[in-house]
User: What shape does this take?
Amino acid sequence: APSSAPDVFALGGMLPNPVRAAGRIRFDVPEASAVTIEVFDVLGRLASSVVDGRVAPGRHEVSWSAAGFPSGTYLVRMRARPESGGVAFEQTRRMTVTR
Assistant: This one.
């Protein structure tokens, strides 16, 4: 567990990018929040739900498998709603899947 929570919400994007088989998505949550992280194709269709639930404060990393996804550009979107009732957060980053 991290020694201190980050100051702000942030979506760190996919590592590596471009992704071949699997990657990691890093994100920061400054306070307990309901978080969703989803992957969409360029037409806006949901391709994968990566995180969907309560997330404790801290720096986090989740794995994402590109198995079954064709080469192309995808969007990773993070949404967070703080339990405190604070301002909701949303950020989107682009990633590429290559075969």
